[in-house]
């Protein structure tokens, strides 16, 4: 059994991270994948993978990071950094990337412009995964009962 989606770099694990990993491995988890959601968290995921034999990392930028035009302008540099990080021997995938059309604030729904920025971020990381011949860890979440996020995701995957 493998745990293919953890965020063990989160501060909530600071007091017992070693114990959590030790318990998981003792309980039969053979491998654990620590998923990066920002460039910095991708670095932290790699650091954890270096520390533990059965822990591996992914590098990526979560769609919630693409909040405005400025964040998309930084995309080329960020993807360049991910490309370098992905060369590490314990990096097994690109992601967590994808589309996040869910808003935690009902008064501020995700705009069409924000969806466009997320799509650009996802596409850039998807192309990186193809270039590096790595699997892609895809995140997709939308409003309950609305399929727009899945339709957009399917169209991007189909097209690319």
Describe the protein in words.
The protein is an alpha/beta fold. 45% of the residues lie in helices and 19% in strands. It has 6 helices and 5 strands. It has helices at 17-26, 39-51, 69-73, 75-85, 112-132, 148-159; strands spanning 2-6, 31-35, 55-59, 91-100, 136-141. The chain has a 5-stranded parallel β-sheet with strand order 1-2-3-4-5. The longest helix has 21 residues, at 112-132. It is globular.
Which key phrases capture this entry?
single chain, globular, 19% strand, 6 helices, 45% helix, alpha/beta, 160 residues, 5-stranded parallel beta sheet, 5 strands
Note poorly predicted spans.
none
Task: Count every beta strand, where a strand is a DSSP E run of 2 or more residues.
Answer: 5
How far apart lie the N and C ends? 31 Å
| Global morphology | globular
**What helical percentage do the residues reach?**
40-55%
Report Rg.
16 Å
Helix and strand sequence: EHEHEHHEHEH
What characterizes the major β-sheet?
5 strands, parallel
Structural class: alpha/beta
Give the number of helices: 6
Helix and strand topology:
Blueprint (H helix, E strand, L loop, with lengths): L1 E5 L10 H10 L4 E5 L3 H13 L3 E5 L9 H5 L1 H11 L5 E10 L11 H21 L3 E6 L6 H12 L1
Parallel strand pairs: 1-2, 2-3, 3-4, 4-5
Helix pairs in contact: 2-4, 4-5
Summarize, please.
The chain is built from six helices and five strands, in the order E-H-E-H-E-H-H-E-H-E-H.
């Amino acid at each position: 059994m493998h745990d293919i989606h953890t965020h063990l770099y989160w501060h909530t694990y600071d007091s017992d991270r070693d114990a959590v990993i030790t318990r998981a491995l003792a309980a039969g988890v053979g491998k654990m994948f620590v998923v990066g959601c920002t460039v910095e968290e991708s670095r932290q995921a790699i650091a954890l993978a270096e520390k533990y034999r059965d822990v591996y990392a992914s590098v990526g930028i979560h769609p919630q990071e693409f909040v405005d035009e400025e964040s998309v302008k930084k995309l080329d540099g960020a993807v360049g950094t991910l490309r370098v990080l992905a060369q590490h021997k314990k990096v097994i995938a690109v992601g967590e990337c994808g589309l996040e059309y869910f808003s935690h604030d009902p008064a501020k729904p995700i705009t069409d412009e924000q969806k466009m920025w997320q799509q650009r971020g996802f596409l850039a990381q998807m192309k990186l995964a193809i270039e590096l011949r790595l699997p892609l860890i895809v995140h997709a979440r939308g409003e309950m009962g609305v399929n727009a996020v899945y339709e957009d995701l399917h169209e991007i995957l189909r097209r690319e």
